[in-house]
Amino acid sequence: MSRKFLIAIGVIMAFMVGIYAFVGGFSEPKVLVTTSEPLLIAGQPFEGTVSDEAFGNAFQKAAKLVAENKLQGGLGNVYYNNPETKSDSIKAFIGVVIQDSTIALPEGYELLRVPGGRKVVHSEINAHYMIAPGKLYDNLFEYAEANNLQLENFYVEWFPSERKAVVEVPVKE
């Protein structure tokens, strides 16, 4: 191989590692047991397969509403079954975490109140929302197993900013 080719490969690899670091790829989640705070999510329920076009459309609608300032807040979801399992079916509520329950909701949206005061395993990371969930769930489940905690099938996931993600799962009492 020529020296120029090896240099080009090295530059490309360095660039890719830099991008991965920039989006938080090397960040590690912080995981702890805490008490949850109440959340309000304006969104829409979804039940079906992850490959269903409506599933992706629900996320796109929420992101568009935030981008166009029609809803103030960060993206947020509730999953009623583990989103990290190999199963293709999912039951979820997809939308935007809001602060004011009196606002007019967009057409097709409803309000979901996630109760506070529950003992939860809380996992958060400073990373781009495209790579954060995998790291959050892996570390959350490892923490629960290491601490002999049984988790409910209720996964609350939200993104307070483009580079921060949070997942909370209630601990079975």
TrEMBL record:
<dbReference type="InterPro" id="IPR029442">
    <property type="entry name" value="GyrI-like"/>
</dbReference>
<feature type="domain" description="GyrI-like small molecule binding">
    <location>
        <begin position="34"/>
        <end position="151"/>
    </location>
</feature>
<dbReference type="Pfam" id="PF06445">
    <property type="entry name" value="GyrI-like"/>
</dbReference>
<dbReference type="InterPro" id="IPR011256">
    <property type="entry name" value="Reg_factor_effector_dom_sf"/>
</dbReference>
<protein>
    <submittedName>
        <fullName>GyrI-like domain-containing protein</fullName>
    </submittedName>
</protein>
